[in-house]
Amino acid sequence: ARPPVSGLMARDRASRPEAKPLRLFVAVEVPEDVRAGLAEAVARVRERFPKARWVPPRNQHVTLKFLGSTYPRLVEWVTETVADVALDKPSFVTRVEGLGAFPNARRARVLWAGLDDAGRRLARLAAGLDEALAREFAPEKRGFTPHLTVARFDPPVVVDPLEVRYESEPFEIDRIVLFRSHLRRPAPIYEPLAIYPLHG
Predict the structure, then answer these.
(1) DSSP letter string over 74-119?
(2) Is 199 designated active site?
(3) Could you confirm whether 61 is annotated as catalytic?
(4) Looking at 61, 89, 124, 180, which residue is catalytic?
Protein backbone atom coordinates (compact mmCIF):
# COMPACT_ATOMS: atom_id res chain seq x y z
CA ALA A 1 0.00 0.00 0.00
CA ARG A 2 1.21 3.49 -0.80
CA PRO A 3 1.82 5.75 2.21
CA PRO A 4 -0.63 8.64 2.56
CA VAL A 5 0.30 11.86 0.80
CA SER A 6 0.60 13.68 4.16
CA GLY A 7 3.20 11.10 5.24
CA LEU A 8 5.19 11.65 2.06
CA MET A 9 5.06 15.41 2.56
CA ALA A 10 6.20 15.13 6.18
CA ARG A 11 9.08 12.90 5.15
CA ASP A 12 10.01 15.30 2.35
CA ARG A 13 10.03 18.23 4.80
CA ALA A 14 12.16 16.28 7.27
CA SER A 15 14.74 15.50 4.57
CA ARG A 16 15.29 19.16 3.71
CA PRO A 17 18.45 20.65 5.25
CA GLU A 18 16.53 23.60 6.75
CA ALA A 19 14.26 21.23 8.68
CA LYS A 20 17.13 19.69 10.62
CA PRO A 21 17.99 21.15 14.05
CA LEU A 22 21.14 23.21 14.47
CA ARG A 23 23.52 22.65 17.37
CA LEU A 24 24.03 26.13 18.86
CA PHE A 25 25.82 27.82 21.74
CA VAL A 26 26.67 31.37 22.82
CA ALA A 27 30.27 32.09 23.78
CA VAL A 28 33.02 34.61 24.38
CA GLU A 29 36.14 34.39 22.24
CA VAL A 30 39.65 34.65 23.69
CA PRO A 31 42.58 36.23 21.77
CA GLU A 32 44.76 33.87 19.74
CA ASP A 33 47.95 34.78 21.62
CA VAL A 34 46.29 33.91 24.95
CA ARG A 35 45.27 30.49 23.63
CA ALA A 36 48.77 29.93 22.21
CA GLY A 37 50.34 30.77 25.58
CA LEU A 38 47.98 28.34 27.31
CA ALA A 39 48.88 25.56 24.85
CA GLU A 40 52.55 26.12 25.61
CA ALA A 41 51.90 26.09 29.36
CA VAL A 42 50.09 22.71 29.30
CA ALA A 43 52.56 20.98 26.97
CA ARG A 44 54.11 18.95 29.80
CA VAL A 45 50.71 17.69 30.95
CA ARG A 46 49.82 16.81 27.36
CA GLU A 47 52.90 14.59 27.12
CA ARG A 48 51.67 12.57 30.12
CA PHE A 49 48.15 12.06 28.73
CA PRO A 50 48.54 11.58 24.96
CA LYS A 51 45.24 9.62 24.75
CA ALA A 52 43.18 12.44 26.23
CA ARG A 53 40.98 14.48 23.88
CA TRP A 54 42.90 17.77 23.73
CA VAL A 55 40.84 20.70 22.51
CA PRO A 56 42.55 22.50 19.58
CA PRO A 57 43.38 26.09 20.63
CA ARG A 58 41.22 27.42 17.76
CA ASN A 59 38.19 25.77 19.42
CA GLN A 60 38.78 27.16 22.91
CA HIS A 61 36.16 29.65 24.03
CA VAL A 62 34.12 30.52 27.11
CA THR A 63 30.64 29.03 26.75
CA LEU A 64 28.01 31.34 28.23
CA LYS A 65 24.94 29.35 27.20
CA PHE A 66 24.75 25.95 25.51
CA LEU A 67 21.53 25.69 23.52
CA GLY A 68 22.16 22.35 21.87
CA SER A 69 19.72 21.05 19.27
CA THR A 70 17.73 24.09 18.06
CA TYR A 71 14.91 24.03 15.51
CA PRO A 72 15.45 26.40 12.56
CA ARG A 73 12.15 28.19 13.34
CA LEU A 74 13.72 29.38 16.63
CA VAL A 75 16.97 30.76 15.20
CA GLU A 76 15.59 34.24 14.44
CA TRP A 77 14.13 34.51 17.96
CA VAL A 78 17.43 33.30 19.49
CA THR A 79 19.36 35.86 17.44
CA GLU A 80 17.13 38.73 18.55
CA THR A 81 17.13 37.60 22.18
CA VAL A 82 20.92 37.33 22.39
CA ALA A 83 21.21 40.77 20.73
CA ASP A 84 18.96 42.26 23.44
CA VAL A 85 21.15 40.79 26.19
CA ALA A 86 24.33 42.16 24.57
CA LEU A 87 22.76 45.63 24.27
CA ASP A 88 22.34 45.70 28.03
CA LYS A 89 25.88 44.62 29.00
CA PRO A 90 29.14 46.65 28.99
CA SER A 91 32.52 45.49 27.70
CA PHE A 92 35.09 44.55 30.35
CA VAL A 93 38.63 43.30 30.89
CA THR A 94 39.61 39.82 32.10
CA ARG A 95 42.54 37.41 31.93
CA VAL A 96 43.14 33.65 31.94
CA GLU A 97 44.60 32.57 35.26
CA GLY A 98 45.24 29.08 36.56
CA LEU A 99 43.89 25.63 35.80
CA GLY A 100 41.20 23.49 37.38
CA ALA A 101 39.47 20.15 36.86
CA PHE A 102 35.86 18.93 36.75
CA PRO A 103 34.56 17.30 38.89
CA ASN A 104 37.84 17.44 40.86
CA ALA A 105 41.59 16.86 40.49
CA ARG A 106 41.46 13.26 41.79
CA ARG A 107 38.83 12.19 39.24
CA ALA A 108 39.37 14.66 36.44
CA ARG A 109 37.14 14.31 33.41
CA VAL A 110 37.84 17.84 32.19
CA LEU A 111 40.96 20.01 32.49
CA TRP A 112 40.16 23.70 32.15
CA ALA A 113 41.74 27.15 32.40
CA GLY A 114 39.81 29.68 34.45
CA LEU A 115 39.09 33.33 33.71
CA ASP A 116 39.23 36.13 36.25
CA ASP A 117 35.65 37.18 36.98
CA ALA A 118 36.08 39.26 40.13
CA GLY A 119 33.51 41.77 38.85
CA ARG A 120 31.12 38.94 37.88
CA ARG A 121 30.75 40.38 34.38
CA LEU A 122 30.94 36.93 32.76
CA ALA A 123 28.59 35.45 35.35
CA ARG A 124 26.06 38.22 34.74
CA LEU A 125 26.29 37.69 30.98
CA ALA A 126 25.62 33.97 31.42
CA ALA A 127 22.74 34.63 33.83
CA GLY A 128 21.23 37.21 31.47
CA LEU A 129 21.27 34.74 28.59
CA ASP A 130 19.90 31.95 30.79
CA GLU A 131 16.96 34.12 31.85
CA ALA A 132 16.25 35.60 28.42
CA LEU A 133 16.27 32.21 26.66
CA ALA A 134 14.38 30.31 29.40
CA ARG A 135 11.15 30.25 27.34
CA GLU A 136 12.65 27.67 24.97
CA PHE A 137 15.82 26.38 26.69
CA ALA A 138 16.11 24.88 30.15
CA PRO A 139 18.04 27.07 32.61
CA GLU A 140 21.47 25.78 33.65
CA LYS A 141 21.35 23.94 36.98
CA ARG A 142 25.10 23.97 37.65
CA GLY A 143 26.92 27.01 38.95
CA PHE A 144 28.71 29.07 36.30
CA THR A 145 32.52 28.77 36.16
CA PRO A 146 34.00 30.84 33.31
CA HIS A 147 36.61 28.62 31.66
CA LEU A 148 38.29 27.34 28.52
CA THR A 149 38.11 23.56 28.15
CA VAL A 150 41.66 22.28 27.59
CA ALA A 151 41.25 18.47 27.61
CA ARG A 152 38.74 15.69 28.31
CA PHE A 153 39.63 12.37 29.93
CA ASP A 154 37.80 9.05 29.66
CA PRO A 155 38.31 7.27 31.98
CA PRO A 156 38.98 10.00 34.59
CA VAL A 157 42.58 10.66 35.65
CA VAL A 158 44.44 12.21 38.56
CA VAL A 159 45.85 15.62 37.63
CA ASP A 160 47.50 18.41 39.55
CA PRO A 161 46.27 21.71 38.05
CA LEU A 162 48.73 23.58 40.28
CA GLU A 163 51.70 22.19 38.36
CA VAL A 164 50.78 24.53 35.48
CA ARG A 165 51.09 28.20 36.35
CA TYR A 166 49.68 30.27 33.53
CA GLU A 167 48.42 33.82 33.71
CA SER A 168 47.73 35.75 30.54
CA GLU A 169 47.97 39.46 29.94
CA PRO A 170 44.62 41.24 30.46
CA PHE A 171 42.38 41.42 27.40
CA GLU A 172 39.04 43.04 26.59
CA ILE A 173 35.76 41.23 26.08
CA ASP A 174 33.66 43.49 23.86
CA ARG A 175 31.39 41.01 22.05
CA ILE A 176 29.60 37.70 22.35
CA VAL A 177 29.12 35.20 19.51
CA LEU A 178 26.36 32.78 18.50
CA PHE A 179 28.08 29.65 17.16
CA ARG A 180 26.84 26.66 15.23
CA SER A 181 28.69 23.45 16.02
CA HIS A 182 29.37 20.98 13.20
CA LEU A 183 30.35 17.63 14.69
CA ARG A 184 33.45 16.36 12.90
CA ARG A 185 36.43 14.14 13.67
CA PRO A 186 38.92 14.65 15.18
CA ALA A 187 37.38 17.92 16.41
CA PRO A 188 34.16 19.87 15.78
CA ILE A 189 34.05 22.96 13.61
CA TYR A 190 32.50 26.07 15.15
CA GLU A 191 30.80 28.40 12.68
CA PRO A 192 29.99 31.94 13.91
CA LEU A 193 26.41 32.78 12.94
CA ALA A 194 26.16 36.21 14.57
CA ILE A 195 28.42 38.59 16.52
CA TYR A 196 26.94 40.95 19.10
CA PRO A 197 28.97 43.92 20.40
CA LEU A 198 28.46 44.65 24.10
CA HIS A 199 26.90 48.09 24.54
CA GLY A 200 25.65 48.47 28.12
Answers:
(1) HHHHHHHHHHHHHHT---EEE-EEEEEEES-GGGEEEEEEEE--TT
(2) no
(3) yes
(4) 61
